[in-house]
Amino acid sequence: MTDIVITESIDEDALKSVLAGFDIHYDPKLFLRHEDLCRAVADVPALIVRNNTQVNAEVLKHAKKLVAIGRLGVGLDNIDMETCKTRGIAVYPATGANTQSVVEYVIGSIFVLLRRAFFATPDVLAGEFPRAKWQGREVTGKRLGIVGFGAIGRSLGASASALGMEVVGYDPYLKAGDPAWSQPWGKVAALDLDTLLATSDVVSLHVPLTAETKDLIDRKALAKMKRGAILVNAARGGVANEKAVAEALRSGRLGGAAFDVFVEEPLSKEKAQVFADCPNLILTPHVGAGTAEANRRVSFMVAEKIRDHLGGK
Question: How far apart are CA 313 and CA 308, in angstroms?
Fold first, then answer.
């Protein structure tokens, strides 16, 4: 009988070493076939997924013997957590394992978007040398506003501070006197969202997608931002309104944006048209946490948690 179903890619070493001894059904494309997924989980105690697998009420209804879910990542919006709680199904995210990868993605995006010169390749290849056109801005001395001051936000703050950025944050779940605002690398000003948006040169989003955070950055929020500010969303699609951001880029209200996550994933050609002709824009396919090193850490962490929950073999 199958012990573990794995519906998306996992590091092969973690699969062979940590989960050796278990009967495993490993199909990295299983998430694409809903009916097959429902059949596959019918009698298994454990399931390992990434963000593409929708572990919704229907899937859980078929998974009658499920006791544990391993999430190769940290976001849990693709898992019906209420049903899991009701049924006593343990859910194990890879908390902290991909933090560094996300931080480096954000820092890299900030450099590219502020400096702008990295978009000059077509001009140079065309025999042009428009140096004034591609004059950018330095990172040092800019204010970084971090929306959501959890583990990733704090790690990002440490890296940004080391680069000479001023770091401020907004997090409604942290009181002003919370120790989290006093980091080893410096004290972080806890601001309300409007003040953060109005005073930050760069805004980076690090919140889950909930009813409260959906369209958190909409037209009204964008209108409050400093003209020419940079926006980075490596959190969840839907936290920033895609159409509103595109409009703000075209109008020059936003100085640049990086989106690694989208409301619809994969982003269809039709949906992608909302970003057509937007200047200083980076679009990536939800790979902010997707480095080789992070994949290995995430895979081993989740595999070990599932192994321990099942009692090992």
Answer: 9
Domain boundaries, the chain: 4-97+293-310, 99-283
Determine contact, residues 296/13, Cβ cutoff 8 Å. yes
Model confidence pLDDT, tens digit, residues 92-127: 999 999 999 999 999 999 999 999 999 999 999 999
Please state, rounded to an integer, the average pLDDT across all residues of the chain: 96
Two domains, one topology: 4-97+293-310 and 99-283? yes
Instruction: Give residue 313's pLDDT.
Output: 61
Judge whether residue 312 has pLDDT over 80.
Answer: no
**To which H or E segment does residue 167 belong?**
strand 166-170
Residue numbers annotated as active site: 236, 265, 286
Reduced to 3 states (helix: H, G, I; strand: E, B; else coil), residue 275 is: helix
Residue among 271, 266, 218 at smallest CA distance from 245:
218
Asked whether the beta carbons of 189 and 168 are under 8 A apart, the reply is yes
What is the pLDDT, as a whole number, of residue 75?
84
Tell me the CATH class for 4-97+293-310.
Answer: alpha beta
Q: 99-283, which class in CATH?
A: alpha beta
- Output Rg (C-alpha) for the chain, integer angstroms: 21
| Pairing outcome for strands 254-259 and 24-26 | unpaired
